[in-house]
Amino acid sequence: TRVLCKITDAQMVQAIERYLKQEIVDRNPVVASSALVSAQQLIAYNKGDVVRRWVNEVTQALEHRSPMVQYHALALLYQIKQHDRLAVTRLVQGLARSGARSPMATILLVRYVARLITDAGVPDAGQPRPFFDFLESCLRHRSDVVVYEAARSIVGLPGVTAAELQPVVSVLQLFLSQPKSVLRMAAMRTLTRISLSHPVALGPCQQDMESLIGDSNRSIATLAITTLLRTGSESSIERLLKQIQSFLSEIADEFKIKVVDAIHSLCLKYPSKHYALLNFLGSALREEGGFDFKRAIVNAYLGLMQKIPESKEMSLSHLCEFIEDCEHTQLSTQILHLLGKEGPLMPDPGKFIRYIYNRLILENATVRAAAVSALASFAGENATEDLRKSVGLLLTQSLNDSEDEVRDRAAFSIACLDLDKQTPSTPTSVTSTADVNKLPCPIANLEADLIHYVSVGSTSQPFDINAVSKAAMSLAPTSATVPDPSGGVSSGPSATPSRPVARDLAENVMAVAELSGLGRPFKSTPEVELTEEETEYNVKCIRHVYPTCVVLEFIILNTLNDQQLDNVVVDVDVSEFEGVSDVRLIAAPECKYGTPGIAYAVLEPTDPSVYLLGTMTCTLKYTVKDVDTATGEADPVGYEDDYTLEDLTLSVSELVAAPAELPSSFKNAWENLGQDNEVTDSFTLSAYDSVVAAVPAVIEFLGLVPCEGTDKASERSQTHVLLLVGIVVPGVQVMVRAEIAAQAGGVLLSTTIRGESLEASNLIASCIA
Known about the structure:
Layout: H1 2-7, H2 10-15, H3 17-24, H4 29-44, H5 55-61, H6 67-81, H7 85-98, H8 103-120, H9 132-138, H10 144-155, H11 162-175, H12 181-197, H13 206-211, H14 218-231, H15 237-248, H16 253-269, H17 274-285, H18 291-307, H19 312-323, H20 329-342, H21 353-362, H22 365-377, H23 385-397, H24 404-416, H25 443-456, E1 475-480, E2 499-504, H26 507-510, E3 523-524, E4 528-529, E5 537-545, E6 550-558, E7 563-573, E8 580-586, E9 588-591, E10 597-605, E11 614-626, E12 639-644, E13 648-650, E14 656-657, H27 666-673, E15 679-685, H28 691-702, E16 705-706, E17 719-728, E18 732-743, E19 746-755, H29 758-768
Antiparallel strand pairs: 1-2, 3-5, 4-5, 5-6, 6-10, 7-9, 7-11, 8-10, 11-12, 11-13, 14-17, 15-19, 16-17, 17-18, 18-19
């Protein structure tokens, strides 16, 4: 039967319909089950129009004495009615009321009920969920499989409450003491899931979960530990850590990582217990383990140092002990970089010098280079004269290192910090500890500008590193063909799919001779369509914002195979703009069919400090020449014509770029800007009815970048604080602290804006008003 249903088409099914219907009600369970499964395959392959008329036979099969037939019959009956919500509801109501079924069929029914409850959404306060009584009754079923499926389904319901979870926790608590390991494992997995949303609900299970720490099945023991760490009280932390200490060495690294993550979360939950938890992580760091396990602990230390400032010194001490016997170069360099950043800010920075110097004499070249950079950070402007002398002496020894990189870093640091002077002095070239090994611009921007400087070939003016933009480079995703390992290009059905690569939006404008002197744009916006997709000419625009002007790059595509466009320009009307002194047009020589041409318009302001904002009317002007489609030759004589494009706007968001590197601490960067250029204001956003809807809108029309994860607002939150940062042309940093609060008739937005100039702060404030 199953083979016959696979090889027949929709018309042939009607010829064998009578035989299949007889097999469905056959007393032999193998025959009936085979027919039911075959009917499911017919529906899955769009040959099941006939099957939908078999409802009576399939319903009769539900009463079969074989559990297997009942299971397949219920699955087929649901598959027939799944697109009719009312029919599914009636089916579930009838089966839930009729009572006893085989355990497997009941599991299927529980899943269908859970799906209906989920589709109904979260009920209003005080309103019962439909069919929830049936799920609760299944928690008292005689089959453990049905009980667990009901418990798992209740936990997965949207908006489940602690009261609804109480019977589930009671049932799963009984499973924890069962001799079958599969039941204990299933119960722990579900309890772990509950602990993520309702940790308090697991209070009655604490003792039972503690007894599983010594379970012979290490997967169960790991789940018990991680769940206890999430749900444990502050007073039970030391006791739990003692139990875990001996257990940790007996499990695999993948389970150890889960334990480390749980301890990290627990430390954030109870910061006052960071001393005990950091000591536990320190001892675990010295135990045997692979790279991933060690990296997880190091990352946990880094996270705790950011969230709990008082843990920094202790964390650094543990990490220093670790690098004394660290086999992983990547971790050693990461920790050395951290020491160079945080070590000089500690009360006694000199105690970390010994650990760094040991790396200079005992490690490979990569670690030695990182140690030189870290060591130089301790001789900044806040260092004592004795400490500076010690650092200078140690760095001098690295001038004879066998590796070029190590020698160069040592020589650079000694020169920058004036450590080669015999007389006491303070750093001149580098003004703070944090800047000892930091470039004044992002590396990607520096590399791009250096390549452009060399490619232009004009070296009459020296390269100015201070002129490199601190804004993030404007990139657009595109598709690239993945090269075949043999050197060809993959093609055909087995070819590797194309993957997105970044395309520099400024590559075309920087290649134009008339514009190459402008350098790299401060910001290039993504392409904007100025025509409909179906029109004869497709025009897109990329807006390039420079410190001294705005360049509009128009990409023109001719879709008519019997025409050629010559001397193509886009004329822009800037009468609505204020401060535009001149508009210079650069024509595209020709636009043949299917080959894009590029024209430019340069908007020059009367004063470089003027922000060019407004809407302009664009008109495509060109000379049309007819083309012989057979030969592809164009007529020598043409006629002038024009084509009206959609208006183009320059708004504040086009003048603001994302910083290449977000501040590590928004609070510190905010305080460094000061209140000299601060602007505050409040606005009512009536277009948004909730805080969660207003947050992305505020980010979009300000054109700034959110910091520290503040772009995510809770669905039910009534207030939210949004931290934003950006760079305004020509390179002025601005920061915004926006408080969003729900109110009647909309959302209240209160902004505090700070910038390196008052004009930049006012610019950001004006775009909201």
